[in-house]
Amino acid sequence: MIENLKFPVAGMDGQGPLVSLVVPVFNECGSVGPFVAAVNAAIAGSWSGAEMPPRFEIVFVDDGSSDGTRETVRAMCRTDLRIKLVSLSRNFGKEAALSAGLKAASGDAVIPMDVDLQDPPELLRPMIEQWRAGAQVVNAKRADRSADTLFKRSSSRFFYKTINSLAEYPIANDVGDFRLFDRVAVDALNRMTEHSRFNKGLFSWIGFRTETIEYTRPSRSVGDTKWNVSKLLALALDGIVASTTFPLRIWTALGALISLSAFFYAAFLIIHTLAYGVDTPGYASLMVAVLFLGGLNLLSLGLMGEYIGRISKQVRGRPLYIVSDTEGF
Ligand code: UDP
Ligand code: MG
After folding, report:
1. Half-sphere exposure of residue 292, counting CA atoms within 13 Å on the CB side?
2. Please, which residues have CB less than 5 A from ligand 2, an ion?
3. Best substitution site from 27, 94, 177 to test ligand 1's pocket, by max atoms within 8 Å of Cβ?
4. In this predicted model, what pLDDT tens digit does every residue of 129-181 receive, in sequence order?
5. Domain 18-150+173-229+323-327 is of which CATH architecture?
6. Rounded-to-integer distance, Cα 248 and Cα 309, Å
């Protein structure tokens, strides 16, 4: 694996802007070597000799691997100065690892990538070109997900539908973490203080001039997926709770509706009882009490929700707005 690193890389000590690839790794001992080799090959193949490629750095974030990934990457750092390693003290999950990598990256543009080559390095050049043409964020959208399992495809479609109908700002469909961020966008992301992080939500939330390029997502090259159904469910729940307050508000409306109809039903029952007498003793009063109290319960739950929604927004501590660029100061 290490021999691959001696591959002569254009742009290794060139001038020009620095592009950081941020790569979270968790038990990927067998994937890091091929990843670096593929990136080197793609860079060498994308920029012909005469053209000036940007400089690159690769920031690996070891997310508490137990299979020697850390040692493998550390060895690479010694032979290749463009490779950097941030090691986390345990497995914090991909979202946290990515955040650590975004903080550590020093590039003028930063591109999070998966190590399993599902984010094709051949896209680096088109993404960087869009960036140089003025885009501050370049999304790589999966035009074709046929490499994913049917379950993953349909569950992710359901997830995007749900979150986009609830969230206050939509999340780009089928765009993963593989995006290019200009330094201003990275700084904005680094300023987000919230703890239960759902990066896709934050990535969409920050805005900026965004371009999208499409690609076909290949299947994993080495190793196997680090996600299972429960981890994905937890991520989906994190995503919804972190970017919406809508589920908290449902109860206000529902409670008001039930209380109101209980009120009319009570009026109807009282008039009915007065006019036609009692059908079943106790029914009217019991029914009214149950419905009305049920409605009140939901209403007060909803009221709490309104406050909790505001508290959670405040606690997320996102900036009120993000400045994209300024001029003439
Ligand atoms: N990953 C991580 N921590 C985790 C799980 C995954 O850093 O707890 C990394 C993993 O090493 C890989 C990337 O996140 O580089 C994407 O993971 P994977 O390919 O398993 O996800 P999938 O493509 O199946 O969604
Ligand atoms: Mg993958």
Report:
1. 11
2. 114, 116, 118, 220
3. 94
4. 999 999 999 999 988 777 777 888 888 888 888 888 887 788 888 888 999 99
5. Alpha-Beta Complex (3.90)
6. 7
